[in-house]
Amino acid sequence: DAGVTQSPTHLIKTRGQHVTLRCSPISGHKSVSWYQQVLGQGPQFIFQYYEKEERGRGNFPDRFSARQFPNYSSELNVNALLLGDSALYLCASSLTSGGIYEQYFGPGTRLTVT
Amino acid sequence: TQLLEQSPQFLSIQEGENLTVYCNSSSVFSSLQWYRQEPGEGPVLLVTVVTGGEVKKLKRLTFQFGDARKDSSLHITAAQPGDTGLYLCAGTPGGFKTIFGAGTRLFVKA
């Protein structure tokens, strides 16, 4: 079975632009979470979606938004990009949502904002 | 603010040595996960610990969950260069928000 896939692998954007990142979960997984990982730090939780509904949101500004589609794939959108948005964006899928659950990560999208 | 503190932040050892990495919090977790991450890749799940006092072994890796479910440790026996990477602990203290520690960067020299 294929693991979690993310696209694109790398992306370079200019300040003020908008970006869309995509994620396909493991087959059968209904939950998708998004994380931002800045160099030298652990991943920071951005969103969790389960069955197309937002279940949790981290401490990120409204410039960050996401959605989940009927096939459980997901998009993360970031508007008005800032230099500080440069990071590795990780998507993780899981069978369940919340409580005791195990997440499986994709390879990430490396976003560079210049 | 709920935090997971990992120590040490960085560890450089010789092949064959033993090491222990710690993950501590003031919060109680229903479970904790350990991941290993290599440069440019996503974290890979190693283990989930659920019960206070639980010990799980994965080949040369031993994971322990504290009795109070506030802390965990990862012990590696006879480390090998292939163990090099960033070791992350993570937990969901409640709701749907998962918290990660900052990680322990391990370098094993041949």
Write down the Rg of chain A: 13 Å
Task: Give helix % range of chain B.
Answer: under 10%
Shape of chain B: globular
- Give unreliable regions of chain B as ranges: none
Roughly what is the average pLDDT of chain A, rounded to an integer?
A: 93
Overall geometry of chain A: globular
Q: Please, what is the average pLDDT of chain B?
A: 93
Structural class given helices, strands, pairing of chain A?
Answer: mainly beta
Measure the end-to-end span of chain B: 40 Å
Number of domains of chain B: 1
Total strand segments of chain B? 11
Q: Number of folding domains of chain A?
A: 1
CATH architecture of chain A: Sandwich
Report on the biggest sheet of chain B.
6 strands, mixed
CATH topology of chain A: Immunoglobulin-like
CATH architecture grouping of chain B: Sandwich
The number of distinct β-strands of chain A equals 11
Give the tags:
heterodimer, A: 114 residues, mainly beta, Immunoglobulin-like, 7-stranded mixed sheet, 4-stranded antiparallel sheet, 11 strands, globular, B: 110 residues, 6-stranded mixed sheet, 5-stranded antiparallel sheet, 51% strand
Describe this structure in words.
The complex is a heterodimer of chains A (114) and B (110). In chain A, a hairpin with a 2-residue loop joins strand 5 (44-50) and strand 6. Chain A starts with a strand and ends with a strand. Chain A contains no helices and eleven strands. The model of chain A has no long low-confidence stretch (mean pLDDT 93). In chain A, strands 2, 4, 5, 6, 9, 10 and 11 form a seven-stranded mixed beta sheet that branches. Helix content of chain A is 0%, strand content 50%. Chain A has one domain (5-113): Immunoglobulins (Immunoglobulin-like). Chain A has strands at 5-7, 10-13, 19-24, 31-37, 44-50, 53-57, 64-68, 74-78, 87-94, 104-105, 109-113. With 114 residues, chain A is mainly beta. By secondary structure, chain B is mostly beta strands. Chain B has one domain (5-109): Immunoglobulin-like. Helix content of chain B is 0%, strand content 51%. Chain B is globular. The relative contact order of chain B is 0.33. The model of chain B has no long low-confidence stretch (mean pLDDT 93).
